[in-house]
Amino acid sequence: MSEEDGDHHSSEATSTNSLSGSHPPDQVLETVLESVLQFLTCRRDRNAASLVCRSWHRAEAFTRSELFIGNCYSVSPARAFARFSKVRSIYIKGRPRFADFNLMPHNWGAHFRPWVSAMARAYPWLEKVYLKRISLTNDDLALLADSFHQFKELELVFCEGFGTRGLSKVAYNCRQLRVLDLSDTEVTDDNVDWISCFPEDETCLESLVFDCMENDINFDALERLVARSPLLKKLRLNRYASMRQLYQLLLRAPQLTHLGTGSFGLIENVQNMDDNQECNYYSSAFAACTSLVCLSGFKDVMPVYLPSIHPVCANLTSLNFSYTNINPQQFRSVIVHCHKLQTLWILDSVCDEGLQAASETCKDLRELRVFPVDADEDIEGPVSEVGLQAISEGCRKLQSILYFCQRMTNEAVIAMSRNCPDLLVFRLCIMGRRQPDSVTGKPMDEGFGAIVKNCQKLTRLAVSGLLTDKAFWYIGQYGKLVRTLSVAFAGDSDMGLRYVLEGCPRLQKLEIRDSPFGDAALHAGAHRYYNMRFLWMSSCRVSRQGCEEIARSMPRLVVELVRYDGEEGSFMEGDSNSFTVLYLYRSLEPPRNDAPESVTIL
Amino acid sequence: MVMRPWDPTTMISCYARKQNHSRLSMAFQGDLNLEATELRLGLPGTGDHERRTPPVGVGVTKNNKRGLPELEDGHREESTRTTKTQVVGWPPVRSYRKNCLQPKKTESESGGGVYVKVSMDGVPYLRKIDLKLYKEYPQLLKDLEEMFKLKGGEYSEREGYNRSEFMPAYEDKDGDWMLVGDVPWNMFVTSCKRLRIMKGSEL
């Protein structure tokens, strides 16, 4: 079942419009169909509806207003826009996720240009653009700002390639802008004061997120902007925002629901107060924000100021402390107030103790992410199986977990599988490669086996530690709903990968690195690749010949071989038979022509 | 080769005489590079992971820095806590996140750091730093430079501040302003109440 909007099983429906007028009953039917179908919002339902017959295909295409492109190279803009003529919002995803970890060259691809140029012609009424792992330039943003007069929402996640000049165009030209969100996105400093480019009168802004920006902004302009944006609900400042600036903004916008606090540590030399007085001073501003439910930032935190957020803790549903290096006691003093918390992102500096404190208070927790302060393999970590066990016992409603640690046991993982049966996402990263159970010395097979067996709703899984083919057998046997699987330094032989490819019918995204899977396994999965978004294999045992055979036997598959040295940050010279990354994906188009020299497309 | 009593510095200088610059840098990289200090009779560079050509047709990188022990001939046992060569992109934490985090905390279980306010002439905001995170003056000065984006001069125990535009001063327990570096480090940590970075022109 394809989940993208370029589906391969239906015939190429040319939208011949039946409004040539000769068959009134058909026309009535189509009109009725369209009126009904426009209530379908879920894209999977829409994909299913479009397969019923030509007439439904047409009607569905005509009424689809949200277009989702899961892989920007799986379909061309021209083809997508020819089918869907009334799109108002578009989601495009580009690079594969493992590219974030320095395994692909920066110029690999995923450019916005062809999409925005085509959209400018096809959808002049476009309102929303959401891009993930896409490269875009200032010119692309300028084109966007000039082409769409009703443009309302721009969200860029893990993107790069542009700067403040492009942002200023968007701020200036998009007069109906409601959302401007930059998350984990690199923005170069073009020395342009983009904040000052927003229109002078009242704005429609509801969300302004720029916490990832590494350059200073004109604070006075920001304060005036916030003052004239009565609908503003989400504001996330970058680390250059000081405590005083934050304070002033909170006074201007007590209606905020989502706040990114900036540094929470940069202080101004304005007041001659001692620490306690300063805390009370700031906490009065927080106390006025009675709608605040989501707090993040704290990028340079001075722990002594943490008490100033106490007034809002009881209402918080989401807290992001993942840049906040605080110890267990400092964390506990905050978390004990957060009874309603559903999402918690923290650093492992809070230790098992901190996790224990969270498990005691946050009974409604749905999502937990624990990041490492020290992303190193050879150290004693501050969190372990103890923290995981505590969380599993206290937070029974947990649905999603990402946990970095240095040591883990099967027992704790099994406990979590039993205590938290609602898990949808289980991502455990034991940082030492091929680390066994730290108590028994055995592989971690049983732990992950229990997860796939007991958590029957599981859709996303990331495994680590010492794993034999048995672990993969479990995944193939029980992981019937798994859509995304991430594997690193695991498995014994081709059988491991075969178990997964043959056993997991819903598998869409499979990313594997440094595991002993070779050509035989690659070929065993051939029947799956047209039904998957992509397969990534890096530093495994597949050979160039094996890849060539797959490419030959599957014409709608694009097979890319990348030769990139992440450490040197450059194209790898040498033997043309060797490569570091195999990345293959289905596509309706011939192979792209924008690949750099380190990429060979078979 | 004469066997000397095991002394890490001796071994390192021995390698430096014979060879390779990169060996030296490897020796200082990371806290415990056991290989650099291992007692051997052979020349440096033997029995080591140098570049080797992979078998033809196998998708393995030439550079063995990726550390794939199961692809080698099997005589290297993978034990759990030996120092491993760094691998690209592992653990899978994005570099933005890694770069954002503060310098490593040393063991401060009591949770009590020695926080002092740091101000700089002409700059409207001030910072607070934890003196317990540092072990010596050069570390502290380097951080101050980064924090306030200063062009640093050179500091040495003997000569004091050389060719620099700023002078860090501190207020001690008695309320006197002293130049940072005048007293031994430990005494400084216990007596420093606040720091002030003064512009060179005032001196």
Explain what you see.
The complex is a heterodimer of chains A (602) and B (203). Chain A has 602 residues and is an alpha/beta fold. Chain A contains 20 helices and 26 strands. In chain A, the strands form three sheets. Chain A has a 21-stranded mixed sheet, with helices on one face. In chain A, strands 5-7 form a two-stranded parallel ribbon. In chain A, strands 23-24 form a two-stranded antiparallel sheet. In chain A, α11 (310-313) links the parallel β12 (294-296) and β13 (318-320). In chain A, α1 (24-37) packs across α3 (54-63), α8 (219-227) runs parallel beside α9 and α16 (445-454) runs parallel beside α17 (469-478). The radius of gyration of chain A is 26 Å and the shape is globular. By secondary structure, chain B is α+β, with helices and mostly antiparallel strands. Chain B has helices spanning 8-18, 21-28, 95-100, 137-148, 185-191; strands spanning 115-120, 125-130, 154-156, 160-162, 166-171, 177-179, 194-199. The longest helix of chain B has 12 residues, at 137-148. The interface between A and B is large, with 69 and 51 residues. β11 (267-268) of chain A pairs antiparallel with β2 of chain B.
